[in-house]
Amino acid sequence: MTEYERWLNTKLDDPDLATELKSIRGKPEEINDRFYRDLAFGTGGLRGVLGAGTNRMNVYTVRKATQGLANYLNSHGSNPSVAIAYDSRIKSDLFAKQAAAVLAANGIHVHIYPWLSPTPTLSWAVRCLKCSAGICVTASHNPAKYNGYKVYASDGCQITLQMADDVQAEINMIDIFRDVKRMDFDRAVSSGMVDYIKDEVIDRFLGEVMKQRVFTKPCTGLKVVYTPLNGTGRVCVTRILGMIGVKDITVVPEQEFPDGNFTTCPFPNPEIREALQKGLELCEKVKPDLLLATDPDCDRCGIAVRQNGEYQLMTGNEVGVLLLDFIARVRTEEGTMPEKPVAVTTIVSTDMATPVAEHYGIELRRVLTGFKYIGDQIADLEAEGSAGRYMFGFEESYGYLSGGYVRDKDAVDASMLICQMAYYYREKGMTLIDAMEKLYKQYGYYENLLVNFEFEGEDGMIKMGRIMDTLRKEHPAEIAGTKVTGWSDYQASECHDGEKVSPISLPKSNVLELRLANGSKMVVRPSGTEPKIKVYLSAKAGSKKGSLAEIENLRKACPRLLGIEK
After folding, report:
1. Residues 15-65: pLDDT tens digits?
2. Which one, of 529, 542, 450, 510, lies nearest residue 46 by Cα?
3. Domain extents for the chain?
4. Does domain 206-443 have CATH number 3.40.120.10?
5. Residue 36 burial (10 A CB sphere; 0-12, 13-18, 19+)
6. Of 515, 526, 465, 469, residue with least CA distance to 492
7. Do the beta carbons of residue 300 and residue 141 sit within 8 Å?
8. What one-character-per-residue DSSP string does 3-36 give?
9. pLDDT digits (tens, 9 = 90+) for 506-558
10. Taking a C-beta distance cutoff of 8 angstroms, is the pair 515, 487 a contact?
């Protein structure tokens, strides 16, 4: 209440915030939700609901975080510089310019994109312009009420846990109103402290993406419907598809241009069918080979494929496995496979990647959830002088990358690869659905499902912590009638298989994995960006029907597992 009153009595330079603060006067629950904590800063930076308060995304929380970053950079090197990009979300451009104004006031040179840009182009700019850090203002695929602020290190990868902790320590010492240095943005531009990133940086980015194409033959005749979901992808994706010979591209008109309200897709996430509905409706008229969708910051990519006259969505796991097999298959055919090839995926991505990698002699590395950990593996290979060993990385949440030119998932690269893959199989008289079915018959039917449980507000945060603590201390002996034969606690870095206990070499993380006697498994973790617990289900059987039945058994068991049965 004290902090609320302070905000209420401060002359704020964003009138929306002042109006909101007055509207919640006398509403203790509303006030508490906005002020019970500071918005947490982590390896993913900030992410939260737009609005007034310390637990909201607004110009003041953005400025405070940027001051903390500025203090960190100035204490860790001389003449630091920062690249900034932003997406189509509400106030993204304002937050980007305010961050630049704070950095400039702290003597830090800023390179900012003059237009909204995909997240991977920020990772590229950091590396291309040799910056000390990067900021991308985006909430990725969250609903319209969210915005966020990702921070990147000098290698173009999202910051490490240690750097996040160090920046958070700086932020903790800053008063949100008194201690933030800031200059006028236009004056920062005219003084040379802020400059706009030139078109040639994007041209070079697209040139690097083109180097990742699997074959050079033009994809002539491939027909695509594309939706950028009112985000940043339209220019880069249509350009790269044109560069590989895809000329027949129809962009979904309702979702072609930037719109932070996402009026035709309240959840602008290519994992969700509703987000692709306008594209699917257009497909019924245009009859393309492929529907392609990128999320608002263009780092994730989803698809639907025409099969027997209907359009079927494919999951992130399916597309990841297909791309892994396709890249390895064609590079083997063309004699371009590197020695000791490496692919990287996450601990929650499909187990099907393992036998596919083994088939091609690829070393498959599994890392924690979050593409920054895949980026770390690319960096490690580069440091060893073995950058060419990296072939492909993917995560089940529709993120893909086939080169080391950036250190984050890239839907521009993914769009190009998927179209090349669709063309490759079309030349063989197959769709991507056909190709996936062939892999299932070869390796077994792997089924995966993500189940989300939401916990809003302060009470929700407490409840999520309690659920994870209980599971950690009292993990079940059986799930859905099947014995639990092993479990892994990534917080304690322990893997238990019967009586055998072995260490986990990954960084500590609040994740639990439960393995069942029939080969199924469940992975439970709180989301790092949303107020929810995520449960990843995995099953394998000799038929599609069998694997789906097991997944359904596991899904029904989830509420009891979490102790939230009604």
Report:
1. 999 999 999 999 999 999 999 999 988 888 899 999 999 999 999 999 999
2. 529
3. 34-197, 206-443, 445-562
4. yes
5. middle
6. 469
7. yes
8. HHHHHHTS--S-HHHHHHHHHTTT-HHHHHHHHS
9. 999 999 999 999 999 999 999 876 789 999 999 999 999 999 999 999 999 99
10. yes
φ/ψ (deg, to 5) at 76:
-120, 15
Q: What percent of the chain has pLDDT over 70?
A: 100
In this prediction, residue 566 carries a pLDDT of 56
- The single residue of 81, 117, 140, 154 carrying the catalytic annotation is 140
Please report, in angstroms and rounded to a whole number, the separation of the first and last CA atoms in the chain: 34
Using an 8 Å Cβ cutoff, are 115 and 104 in contact?
no
For 104, phi and psi rounded to 5 degrees?
A: -60, -40
Q: Which two tokens stand for residue 181?
A: 């240095």
- Confidence (pLDDT) at 460: 85
Q: How far is 317 from 352, CA to CA, in rounded Å?
A: 9
Angle between helices 316-333 and 411-426 (to 10 degrees): 70
CB 413, CB 392: distance < 8 Å: no
Alpha-carbon span 412 to 120, nearest angstrom: 8
User: Cα(339)–Cα(362) distance, rounded to whole angstroms?
Assistant: 9
Residue 123 CA to residue 156 CA, distance in Å, equals: 4
For the record, the structure tokens of 258 come out as 């930037």
Q: 302, 398 in Cβ contact below 8 A?
A: yes
Domain 34-197 matching CATH 3.40.50.10420: the answer reads: no
Strands 310-314 and 301-307, sheet pairing: antiparallel
pLDDT, tens only, 242-274: 999 999 999 999 999 999 999 999 899 999 999
Asked if the domains 34-197 and 445-562 are classified in one and the same CATH topology, the answer is: no
Residue 44: which of 197, 158, 179 has the closest Cα?
Answer: 158
Query: C-alpha angle 80/86/89, rounded to 5°?
Result: 150
pTM of the model: 0.94
Topology of the domain covering 445-562: TATA-Binding Protein (3.30.310)
Cα dihedral value 420, 422, 423, 425, nearest 10: 120
Q: What is the dihedral of CA 261, 457, 33, 263, to 10 degrees?
A: 10
**Residue 140 annotated among the catalytic residues of the structure:** yes
